[in-house]
Amino acid sequence: MAKKKENVTAALAPQGHSDDHIAVFGAREHNLKNLDLQLPKNKLVVITGISGSGKSSLAFDTIYAEGQRRYMESFSAYARQFIGDMERPNVDKITGLSPVISIEQKTTNKNPRSTVGTITEIYDFLRLLYARIGVAYSYNTNKRMTRFSEEEIIDHLFKNYNKKKLVILAPLIRGRKGHYRELFEQVRKQGYLKVRVDGEILDLKERMQVDRYKIHDIELVIDRIQVTEDARTRISQSVQKALTMGKGLLFIQDHDSGKVSQYSKQLMCEDTGISYEEPSPNTFSFNSPYGACPRCKGLGAIYQISMDEVIPDYNVSLNDGGLKPLGESRDTYTFKQVEKLAKKYKFSLTGPISDIPQKALNVLLFGDENGKLEEDVDFSAAATEDVTKYSVDFEGVVNTVRRFFNDTASDHVRTWAEGFMHLNTCPECNGTRLRKESLYFKVDERNISELGNMDLDKLQQWFTNIEDRLENKQNVIAKDILKEIRERLGFLLNVGLSYLTLNRATRTLSGGESQRIRLATQIGSQLMGITYILDEPSIGLHQRDNMQLIDALRNLKDMGNTVIVVEHDKDIMLHADHLVDIGPGAGVHGGRIVAAGTPKEILKLNTPTAGYLSGRTESPIPERRKGNGNFLELKGATGNNLKNVNVKFPLGTFICVTGVSGSGKSTLINETLYPILSKHAYDSKQVPMPYKTIKGLENIDKVIEIDQSPIGRTPRSNPATYCGFFTDIRTLFAQVPEAKIRGYNAGRFSFNVKTGRCDVCEGGGMRVIEMNFLPDVYVHCEKCNGRRYNRETLEIRYKGKSISDVLDMTVDEAVEFFQAVPWIHRKIKTLQDVGLGYITLGQSAVTLSGGEAQRVKLATELSKKDTGKTIYILDEPTTGLHFQDIQLLLTVLNKLVDRGNTVLVIEHNLDVIKMSDYIVDLGPEGGAGGGTILCTGTPEQVSTCKDSHTARFLKKELGI
Q1: Which of 28, 249, 309, 500 is the most buried (most CB within 10 A)?
Q2: Of the ranges 51-65, 93-107, 370-384, which one carries the lowest mean pLDDT score?
């Protein structure tokens, strides 16, 4: 099972009297300025502040890290060497810390086997329910299965196999590895002569064994006999013995046809003779070979060759690359084979593929059905020797691609083969992931896959009063299982996830959704005395569902836990027991406590946060743009829950796509519109969800998706390298006269190239000191003192600054420094324009928050020359952004629109929605209750829509 374990850590008993507070003294992690603060215990505490002010540094990198470290220290030194140690956070001391559980956004499982059902364990209980009370039906006749007694099996044999020769088999081993030497020896000593191993009947010999590393099926041959009335007694004894040896199961093999039938004391179809094994929870698991569909191995989808990719154009000849996997004509072994085929089937390599006869084309694609190709190949070193003649099979281009995809160990080759394939729903299980037999066990006329595809609120309704629809025996068995399922479903509904299904893959969830699932799991665990730390659980949640989330957090608090939430949502902040505002700025300008107290106390203060919370600080509503007169019109979108959606997007405007969680926004924009635009602009291979037509593509020449994923996963990645201006800076340094005299090129100034970087820390600036029982310590490299480069490189100076000095500059300083170099100044200025003046050019990408990473990407796009025909797609760009940050973001987005581009944003934040030019609102509910366009138009027009939840809140925000 693919389960995600929580980061659960326990702290040692705190010193002193700190029963009612968690006290932090001298916190200096990242940009924190020697903070001292007290947080009340068993309360809902919200930490807020602008992006990059130090909220996560306090909550996660200080409080959580210290709780985790103390827990690790409680292990012996011997145990710690295996599990690793935690680095001590940069803090003087923390008192009153109870065991800590962190629920972050970043831990979504990317495993394709992981689903909402598996990580919440509801699917485990469903499997148990079906294994214990599921009613089996035949997949041939749809009739209820029956169990056979020994007498019924014998009567069945006489009815269906009369006068036929049979082999009676007792299954001993099913689908397991091992050499089974002892088993063979044991049955041989009992007098048996033959066994059937993996479908082949073999004589039992001394010291017989099979390959221990392969999976085997082994059956014992109990008897070989012809079915006649005279042999009834012998058949009866053999059946009895086979059922004993096979533990209630026997196989009958027709001697002539070799066909095998199962007979079972358990479940069997009377009409067709098919038999099912006794169900176990594994029978319903798509992660077990006993439950998974054998075709797709439990993934629900398989890669299939796409003929459109193999032959993109039938008017192109084979020599010109008409058969894409072969490429253009060249002197290779495969092309020699194709030439032989051309001679044999009399077709031209220079004519269009459409002229090749169908039979010859089948041979080219799928292999020669009529035998082998005789071919002359010169294997000799000298051409004077005899030519060797040999024969080979031409396997066909399609088979070659499939073989490369399945058998290669090379990622490069697999990616090449994948280019000719599409991921399609498995035709055998139709995406249910389970084998046929598993889908024919039903509870109240529904199989386990049907329950997995229901929205959670519908599933909860189905489980209501299920006892009235079950038999008495089933109710007795299922009583405890049903209680667990209902409880867990209730917790998920309480955190606003009614629109999800149990079969939804976890990798398709947003950070907020996966976080709320883990929150529901924690509420279900009923723990007390814990400090929970959450990172923006309101992400992706509509205002309508906010109160449900607040009630869930309060529920956690009322159990006797401390709940610390890093959050920007107005509702959650106003419902907190204690509010901490960190700032006043970001990066080096932050890290201080601006205000701390109850929301009522904070509202009276004159701080930016208080201004936004109280409504004193409000942005003026801009004049709505009409656009450039062109439209992008999508018709007939039916992906996921979309109900034949038709929508028009006015180009040259700022568009917001709104709607409750699960209403179909991401399906419409990210999974339908973006792949269509990407294919149009870049010939992308991404396949859009089903739709009928799209108009207006000629008005777009570029599409850019900007998300909050990190700009780099290594400490070497930084804003200067990501935005691309570090190359320009290195080129500038290479043009300094001293650098020219020494023969240095731009590569000399890269900390990833050996010649110029420090050879001790290899351009990292830090050295890792490995400690056996203590955590690894990072120290400044003693040779370069953290400057990354060797002495010779640092001697080259531009305006008195070395390349290392430039990397240590803040963006604000760099804008001034490079004023005379327009091509560098323009790119750095865009970082300043998006509000990142406080970060350094060489700041490690891994230390940037999600909001900062997003703005670095925005700055990169802003610095490029646009055509005015670009469409920018952003999915919830306000994640991790404070009210002040949102104003900065809106300024940047409006700049893009003012240049004639289109900005398309999926958003729940009303501060952004009310500033847009055009709104597309989906709903009315999530999941199956959504997928329709409720209204479109300006915010003022949408606010009058009666069916829309968004309209209700927007009306209040606009003051209408």
Answers
A1: 500
A2: 370-384
The single residue listed with the structure tokens 């059937």 is: 196
Amino acid letter, 230 = D
Over residues 931-938, the mean pLDDT reads: 95
Query: Which pLDDT score is estimated for 699?
Result: 93
DSSP bridge pairs for 103:
534
Q: For residue 245, what are its two tokens?
A: 């040896």
> Which one-letter amino acid corresponds to residue 189?
K
Strands (E), 50-155: 93-95, 100-103, 135-136
What is the b/e burial string over 102-136, where b = at least 16 CB atoms within 10 angstroms of the residue's CB?
bbbbeebbeeebbbbbbbbbbbbbbbbbbbebbbb
Which residue, among 659, 669, 671, has the nearest Cα to 919 in the 3D structure? 659
Give the total residue count for the chain.
960
> What sign has the CA pseudo-torsion 418, 419, 420, 422?
positive
**CB contact at 8 A, 523 and 491:** yes
Query: Could you tell me if 840 and 810 are in contact, meaning their C-beta atoms sit under 8 angstroms apart?
Result: yes
Burial 706-742 (b: 16+ CB within 10 A, else e): bebebbbeeebbbbbbbbebbebbbebbbeeeebeee
Averaged confidence pLDDT in the chain: 87
**Alpha carbons 7 and 2: distance in angstroms, whole number:** 16
Q: What is the distance between the alpha carbons of residues 345 and 496, in angstroms, rounded to a whole number?
A: 65
Confidence of residue 3 (pLDDT cuts 50, 70, 90): very low
Which helix H or strand E contains 854, and what residues bound it?
helix 850-863
Residues 166, 311: Cα–Cα separation, whole Å? 51
Q: Which residue has the tokens 């008409």?
A: 322
Q: For residue 341, give Cα distances in angstroms to 336, 355, 372, 374.
A: 9, 15, 11, 10
Rounded CA separation 104/909 (Å):
21
CA 150, CA 630: separation in Å to the nearest integer?
77
Strands (E), 497-604: 531-535, 562-566, 578-583, 592-597
Question: How far apart, in whole angstroms, are the C-alpha atoms of residue 625 and residue 627?
Answer: 6
pLDDT score for 335: 84
Mean pLDDT confidence for 919-947: 93
Please say if the pLDDT value at position 373 is more than 90.
no
Asked if 338 and 326 count as a contact pair (C-beta separation under 8 A), the reply is yes
Position 371 scores a pLDDT of 39
Peptide bond into 924 cis (omega under 30): yes
- Please, is 411 exposed, middle or buried when counting C-beta atoms within 10 Å of its C-beta (0-12, 13-18, 19+)? exposed
Asked if the model's pLDDT at residue 626 lies above 50, the reply is yes
Cα gap 428→293, rounded to integer Å: 8
Tokens (6 digits) for 651: 């180009």
pLDDT band at 383; cut points 50, 70, 90: very low
CB 845 within 8 A of CB 815: no
Shortest CA distance to 115 belongs to which of 4, 32, 261?
Answer: 4
Q: H or E element: which one contains 546?
A: helix 546-558
DSSP, collapsed to helix, strand or coil, labels residue 631 as strand
Residues 6 or more apart whose CB falls under 8 angstroms from that of 280 comprise 131, 290
- For residues 640 and 1, the model is more confident at 640
* Residue-level pLDDT at 62: 95
**CA pair distance 420, 485, nearest whole angstrom:** 43
Looking at residue 771, what is its pLDDT?
A: 58
Please check the confidence at residue 802 and state whether its pLDDT lies above 90: yes
Distance CA 143, CA 337 (A): 54
Query: Would you state the pLDDT for residue 774?
Result: 53
Angle, CA 454 vertex, CA 450 and CA 455 arms, to 5°? 170
> What's the half-sphere exposure (Cβ side, CA atoms, 13 Å) at 915?
22
How far is Cα 941 from Cα 918, in angstroms, rounded to an integer?
Answer: 9
pLDDT higher at 685 or 154: 154
Q: What is the mean pLDDT of residues 626-633?
A: 93
